[in-house]
Structures are given as structure tokens and as C-alpha cells.
């Protein structure tokens, strides 16, 4: 009877986690309550997952990744990668994916994808590669990178904790590497080949190097003492990826010549995406002309927002200079966007054409539908929402990266990982200590460091309790016996392949962590019933959970789904053969590293 109840709860858990309309955290808490009401666990046992050391360490690891992002470590690496675009597009892609793989091997793959996404999107134009052909490999690479080391993904950590609870010992920091590293190398290589064969360019895709869909125009200037003075313009456009569209000298805009040497306080016209414009704010040797008028000591307290010129606005037809925008609103207009259709049908409204004629950005008349990126005190931004002449579209979440502390953040992160990996102290304590050091040294502020995905933390805590209930009730052993007859037909490798395939399929409606924890008891009991070492089956299940590329439902894949303008079928085309190949490789590689029979 207890086994039946446990299996029913598992089915209910799968259904709850599969329904998009129900938030993950709500489903997770419902599972915890259901485990207690069904009598499978006591309240203390049901809540033990939230106090588990692994859950605390996963939280700390996500927070530490926020520190790397806040100090601009990923962005700095991304910019350096543009150097390889000079040689070939292929060299750039390979180095970008290598960097993503390296970061995701020790940090949350979802966080790494989120950090590298704007870098890849902004760099794709400079590297002359369509973002559609870059972002899916980026997401898949971050998922494969998580199989290399223990801390690469939370799935590895929760499986490690579950194995320790069952007396099978934790997963070593590099224990997965002999299989995970070649798996990642092969998987990344095959992904690039499949992208070329199975995902050809389709009509309507943005052309590599084409202007972004929403192109902002702004004016930038070399800062006093800039290291770019006397350097060729190519060092700014190709080396740093700044989309320069013209050089303003003596009131006239000239085309950007790559070999032209830049002069002190050189004025440049930049046209690019919102990310491009914000990225210029981060550079030390160049800044936005309007941004430089904001006092340095108060910029951190300033907010950014996008506003539009509505049809009823009296500002239409008047320039920023005419209306004395800064004095009137207490804000600075950093950049302007005008819809391409409007520019094409009314040549006198063409931004670049007006600038080429000698007009400064502040002297160009505004038009209905124009978007402005404005910045200033938060109070002034809130007051702007009451204005009838401008419509506030929404705030722009931006915080200047703390580049001076980038090296310190890397040292703290690396030390934390090393201390936790070597078990010098509890991984949870090591993670919390690293988090506190990040805050204490100013690498990240307290508001940013806690911007972790709490849904993941709650879900893992609930699923650890579910795994305990499956083990305690004997449901895991019951399901294993249902799989056991396959051993006589397909052998131990075949049983391993079936269990790993089931893990991959379960990860579609659920999550990687949930699928691994549901199938782990089945894998362990299947091995024990066949008289084999359960570690091979357990670690095969762990690795298989990170090899589900069939749909864009995995968090890393979901992040690139919109920016890459993918369709659901695109993931099926590329992900299906890749997933099958990974399962075949695991079926043969896992027993080589973790033999079925004990020595």
C-alpha cells in the first residue's frame, strides 16, 4: 500500500511540475505538503531537504556567480574573444564556446548562459555571424560544460547528496571529468556540424552584421587621457566591438575609416542595440557625451528608462536643444531610436542623414514614435511617469560593472570552489564564507547578490524530500524490479541505456534535477538486483540528466529561444540527434570509467 501511495505522489509531482500555469515554487511546496498528508514522511523529514547542506551550497554558488557578473568578468572575457574574429568567424565561435564551457564547468550553467547572452548577441555583428547560428550552440555548450566537474550544475550536487545519504559516497570534484570532458568536446563539435546541416538560414532571419531590430543612435567622445588617442579606429570598432557609424570633425560627420587615427576628445556617432549603448558606458577610454555630464560620484544612484514620444505630444517637431530637455526634466537623453520604416518613408527624418549633414544629436527634431533612453535621479524618473508629453515604457535594469574588483571576485570564487571541492570544510560553509567575502570586499552589493532563482532552491529542497519518500517506501525497488527483466534481453548496458533514456525523457516535463532524483532510486536498485556496482548506474543517470537537448524547456535553452528567433522544431531538429549520440556515448563510456563489477 505504501509503495502505491508513493508512486501516486511521484506521478502527481511530475504532473504538477509539468504544468506551466502553476509556478514551480508552488508545485514544489505542494509536493512537500502532500508527502506529509499521505503519511510517507514526518514533517521533520519532509522539511529536511531545505536544510540540506547541498541546497545551501547551491544557493551560495548562484550568489557567487552574481559576483562574477557584477564585476564584469564574463563581459571582459567576451570582449577579449573579439580578437579572434580578426582571423575567422570559426575561430571566434570556437573560442567563445570554449570560454562558456570553462565557466559552466564550475558555475551554474543557467547563470553563465545569462551572462554570455548579451556578449554573444553584441559580438555576433562584429564577428559577422548570425546570432541564430551562435546562441543555440552557446546554450548547449553551457549544459555540456556542467558535466565536467561536480560544481558545474546543481544536478550533480543533488545526486551527490542523495548518494551520500544512501551510503554510496559523494561524487568527487573531478570524478565526472573522464566522461564529462570528452562528452563536452564531442557534443560541442557535433552541435556546430548539426547547426550547419539541419538548421539552414531561413527567410526573414537577420543577416550577419546587419543593424539590430531596434537601433539606438548616440554621440560618444574619448575621455580626457584616453588610451585610445593616437590609435587606429579599428582598435575601437573591431577590438572592443563598439559600433561606430561616423566620426564628427569640424561639425561634419565622416565615414569611419578603420586606419584613421583618433584624436583627443574625438566625437563619434554610435548606432547599435540598447546593449551596445550600455556597453559603451562601461568602457574607461570612451563615454557617452550626455553621460559624461552626470557627476561621477552620483551616477550609481541614477536610473535608466525608455520613453516614447506619443502622438499627442507637443515635443514632436522640436529638438532636445529647443526644449532644454535636461533643465526641463532633470534628466539626460543618452540615445535616440527612430523606426526604420519612418526613416525610409520620410528622408528628412533619417537620423544618420541628418547627422551626416552636420546636425548634432541634440539639434535633430523629435518625431512621433521616437524612443529615448534617458537617465537621471530615480525621483526624476518617477516624476516623468506623470508627464503627458512623454510615455514611460519601462526601466532599464543596468548597473555599472565593478571592473576593478574583477580579479578579486575570480580569486574568491576559485578559492571557494577549491575549499569546497577538497572538503577542507563543509561546502555549505565554504560557499557562505565566499558569499560574505564577495559582499565585504565590494565585489557585489547585498541587493544584487540575493538575485538568485529561489524557485530552483525550493524545488531542489522539495525533490530531495520526494527522493527520501521513494526510498523509504520501497517504491524505487519496486520500479527497479519492473526494469529487471530487460537485463536478460539487452544486458546491463541495455538496462543502463533504458534508465538514462527515461531520465532524459522525464527531464522534458520536469527539470534535470527532478528527473535525476526520481530515476536515481530505480538506477541504484536495478544495479543491486543484478549484482552490479550501483555507482555506475547512479552516475550514468546523473550525466544523462544534463544531456536533454530535445526542447527549449531547459532554462539555458529557454534564455536563447527568443533572442535567437528559434522555433520549437529547431530544437527537435538539432537536439534529437545530439541527445541520441550523447546517450550512445554514455552507454559505452560509463562502464569503462565505473566498471559494473566491483574490483
Automatic annotation (TrEMBL):
Membrane topology per the record?
Multi-pass membrane protein
**Chain segments annotated as transmembrane:** 28-43, 55-78, 90-117, 138-159, 179-199, 406-422, 452-470, 482-507, 574-594
Q: Give the subcellular location.
A: Membrane
> Which keywords, in A-to-Z order, does the entry hold?
Membrane, Repeat, Transmembrane, Transmembrane helix, Transport
Determine the domain of life of the protein's source: Bacteria
Q: Name one Pfam family in it.
A: TrkA_C
Residues folding into a coiled coil are: none
Task: Please state every residue range assigned to the domain named RCK C-terminal.
Answer: 205-286, 292-390
In its UniProt entry, what is this protein called? SLC13 family permease
From what organism does this protein derive? Corallococcus praedator
Organism lineage reads as: Bacteria, Pseudomonadati, Myxococcota, Myxococcia, Myxococcales
Amino acid at each position: 500500500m505504501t509503495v502505491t501511495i508513493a508512486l501516486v505522489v511521484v506521478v502527481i509531482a511530475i504532473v504538477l511540475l509539468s504544468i506551466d500555469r502553476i509556478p514551480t515554487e508552488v508545485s514544489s511546496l505542494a509536493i512537500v505538503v502532500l508527502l506529509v498528508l499521505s503519511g510517507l514522511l514526518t514533517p521533520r523529514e519532509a522539511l529536511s531537504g531545505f536544510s540540506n547542506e547541498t541546497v545551501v551550497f547551491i544557493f551560495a554558488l548562484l550568489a557567487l556567480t552574481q559576483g562574477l557578473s557584477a564585476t564584469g568578468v564574463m563581459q571582459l572575457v567576451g570582449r577579449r574573444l573579439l580578437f579572434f574574429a580578426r582571423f575567422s568567424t570559426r575561430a571566434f565561435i570556437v573560442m567563445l564556446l570554449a570560454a562558456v564551457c570553462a565557466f559552466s564547468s564550475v558555475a551554474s550553467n543557467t547563470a553563465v548562459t545569462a551572462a554570455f547572452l548579451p556578449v554573444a548577441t553584441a559580438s555576433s555583428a562584429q564577428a559577422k555571424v548570425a546570432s541564430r547560428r551562435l546562441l543555440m550552440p552557446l546554450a548547449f555548450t553551457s549544459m555540456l560544460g556542467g558535466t565536467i566537474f561536480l560544481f558545474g550544475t546543481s544536478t550533480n550536487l543533488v545526486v551527490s547528496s542523495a548518494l551520500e545519504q544512501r551510503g554510496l559516497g559523494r561524487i568527487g570534484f573531478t570524478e565526472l571529468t573522464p566522461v564529462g570532458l570528452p562528452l563536452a568536446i564531442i557534443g560541442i563539435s557535433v552541435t556546430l556540424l548539426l547547426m550547419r546541416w539541419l538548421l539552414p538560414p531561413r527567410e526573414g532571419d537577420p543577416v550577419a552584421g546587419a543593424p539590430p531590430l531596434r537601433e539606438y543612435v548616440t554621440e560618444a567622445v574619448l575621455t580626457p587621457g584616453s588610451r585610445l588617442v593616437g590609435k587606429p579606429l579599428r582598435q575601437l570598432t573591431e577590438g572592443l566591438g563598439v559600433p561606430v557609424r561616423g566620426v564628427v570633425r569640424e561639425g561634419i560627420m565622416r565615414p569611419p575609416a578603420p586606419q584613421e587615427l583618433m584624436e583627443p576628445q574625438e566625437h563619434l556617432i554610435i548606432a547599435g542595440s540598447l546593449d551596445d549603448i550600455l556597453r559603451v558606458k562601461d568602457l574607461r577610454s570612451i563615454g557617452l557625451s550626455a553621460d559624461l555630464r552626470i557627476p561621477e560620484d552620483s551616477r550609481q544612484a541614477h536610473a535608466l528608462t525608455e520613453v516614447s514620444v506619443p502622438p499627442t505630444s507637443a515635443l514632436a517637431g522640436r529638438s532636445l536643444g529647443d526644449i532644454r530637455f535636461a533643465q526641463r526634466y532633470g534628466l539626460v537623453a543618452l540615445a535616440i531610436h527612430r523606426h526604420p520604416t519612418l526613416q525610409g518613408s520620410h528622408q528628412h527624418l533619417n537620423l544618420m542623414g541628418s547627422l551626416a549633414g552636420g546636425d548634432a544629436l541634440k539639434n535633430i527634431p523629435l518625431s512621433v514614435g521616437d524612443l529615448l533612453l534617458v537617465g537621471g535621479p530615480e525621483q526624476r524618473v518617477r516624476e516623468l511617469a506623470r508627464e503627458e508629453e512623454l510615455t514611460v515604457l519601462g526601466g532599464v535594469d543596468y548597473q555599472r560593472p565593478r571592473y576593478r574588483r574583477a580579479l578579486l571576485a575570480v580569486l574568491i570564487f576559485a578559492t571557494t570552489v577549491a575549499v569546497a571541492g577538497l572538503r577542507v570544510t563543509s561546502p555549505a560553509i565554504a560557499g557562505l564564507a565566499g558569499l560574505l567575502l564577495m559582499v565585504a570586499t565590494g565585489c557585489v552589493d547585498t541587493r544584487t547578490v540575493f538575485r538568485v532563482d529561489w524557485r530552483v532552491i525550493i524545488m531542489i529542497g522539495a525533490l530531495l524530500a520526494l527522493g527520501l519518500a521513494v526510498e523509504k517506501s520501497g517504491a524505487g525497488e519496486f520500479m527497479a524490479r519492473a526494469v529487471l527483466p530487460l537485463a536478460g534481453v539487452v544486458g546491463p548496458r541495455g538496462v543502463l541505456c533504458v534508465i538514462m533514456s527515461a531520465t532524459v525523457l522525464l527531464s522534458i516535463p520536469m527539470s534535470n534535477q527532478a528527473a535525476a532524483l526520481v530515476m536515481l532510486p530505480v538506477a541504484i536498485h536495478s544495479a543491486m538486483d543484478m549484482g552490479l556496482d550501483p555507482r555506475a548506474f547512479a552516475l550514468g543517470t546523473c550525466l544523462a540528466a544534463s544531456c536533454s537537448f530535445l526542447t527549449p524547456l531547459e532554462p539555458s535553452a529557454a534564455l536563447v529561444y527568443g533572442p535567437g528567433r528559434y522555433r520549437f522544431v529547431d530544437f527537435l531538429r538539432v537536439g534529437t540527434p545530439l541527445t541520441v549520440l550523447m546517450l550512445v556515448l554514455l552507454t559505452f563510456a560509463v562502464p569503462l570509467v565505473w566498471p559494473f563489477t566491483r574490483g
